[in-house]
Structures are given as structure tokens and as C-alpha cells.
Amino acid sequence: MRFINPKTDFAFKKIFGSNQSKPILISFLNAMIYDGNPTIADLEIIDPYLASRVQYLKDSYLDVKARLADGATVIIEMQVLNVESFAKRVVYNTAKTYSTQLMRGEGYFKLKPVIALTITDFEMFDNDREVISHFLFKEKERLFEYPDPGMEMIFIELPKFNKQLDELETLTDKWVYFMKNAPSLEVVPSTMENVSEIQQAFAIANETNLNAEELKDLEDRERYIMDQQGILRKGIEEGLAQGREEGREEGIALGMREKALEIARQLLNVLDNQTISQTTGLSVEDIQNLR
Predict the structure, then answer these.
(1) CA-CA distances (angstroms) from residue 278 to 79, 213, 244?
(2) What is the pTM of this model?
(3) Are 51 and 64 in contact (CB under 8 A)?
(4) Of these four, 18, 192, 231, 249, which has the most CB atoms within 10 Å of its CB?
């Protein structure tokens, strides 16, 4: 058997956001957010596209979005490319999801919590070696939590997870291993056979269950990601080299921006403005000006 890569947006949405994915997503979220405890009993998978009701707010594109039985919203994003200002984008999408719950005249008591779960295929926090990081509002010195904070952000950094199959103990271990290693497996590991939801995820991820059009979409997406990873690496290296030659931080920023503009020009006939913006770190206005 061959399994599709759950780190691509196509595969991630198919595994966790399709009509048959509800039990899979419940198990996955319980593992990622609640240490494997069965805290989430039910949820509704909803449209992940966040079109703002406020004219000047940016639209947001997420991979999966779910509303829990208690009214809380979970927004989930799988990010492969370490694009500029990604950390700010996560905060923006979380705050936007929280703040746009209310219609004009509605009371703040109607606000429900928002949890942003972000899985990255790169390291976000260089000063920490834990795989999962959970952020809340807390008092700076005494670290007590803000009452009714409303927003949480959880990050799963896949490169920091190094457990082997015989070391998997918890539900969290097994789901993170699935996310990181599914494409390199040929069979469902025996250590995961006791989790029916992970077996279902492997069944959806089995390439034999995809039609020709889906396989082509998947291959195109994987090729695009590999190309962009190479372009971004080259751009960063060339930007740093140019910055060093000019001898100042402005030189680094200028070199990286010029390379980002060059990449964006190559993508104008392939992608929409929003996707190019997210890939290169340029603003949508920059992309519009290039067009």
C-alpha cells in the first residue's frame, strides 16, 4: 500500500475534513488538544473559508474548521512552508475568528472560545524542544490565567517528533507519528491497529481509494510544495548573501524582498493573489501591483 501525504492541504482536508471524517477529527483533536482524553464527544465540520463581514479585514483560508458541542470553534491549519510573518497570520486568523462571531448589537456574553491548532513541518520555536506548545493569556510575572481568555493557540512542530514505532505510547504519539510518517509506510503499523479512527485515516489516505483526478491534484500539489521549498531556500540564501555584502540589516530585508518579488512574478499565471501572498510573505497589495 501507498499512503498520501497528510501534510499537503489536499490530503489533510480529505482525511480530516470530509463527510466521513467526523470520528477521525474527534480523535485527532482529543489527542492534540486534550492529551488523548475523550473531552470532545461531538462536533460539526464546517466551511473553513473565513470571509469577513467587515470590509477592511483580510479573508482567511484554513484547512479544517469545526464547531464543538459546547459552542467552541477549532480552526486547524497544516503549514508546510515557513513563509514570512506566518506567526502573525496564526494570531490574525485566531483573533478574526473570535471577533467576527457577533453581529451588530449582540452582547459579548455570546462569544464562544476559539482554539487555533497549527501543525507545522518546520520548527517555529528554536529555543524549545517540545513537540507541542500551548499558548494562553497569562499574567506576565505570576502566570495566572486571564479570566475567560476566549482564545488559545496550539502548535505541533513535526520535525521535533523523533519517536519510533516501538516507542509510541499515547494517542497523541500515534497521531503525530501518522502526520509525520504516513507517506513512508507500506502497511498500517500494528501499534496503531487498536485505534479505529487512525485505521480509518489510513484507509482514506490509501492511494488506491483515490480517483485519477484526485491523484493528479495531489501530485501537482506535492510538486508545487517541493518547488516552493527549493525557491524559498534559495531566496533566503541569496537574500542573506546580498545583506552581508551590504553590511547591514536593511540589506538582508531588501535582498529577501527582491527575491520574494521574483518568486511572485513566476506565480502570477498559476495562483491567486491570496495564495501567492501566503507563499511569499508579500502583501496582497504587492501582488496586485505586480499584476
Answers:
(1) 10, 25, 26
(2) 0.75
(3) no
(4) 192
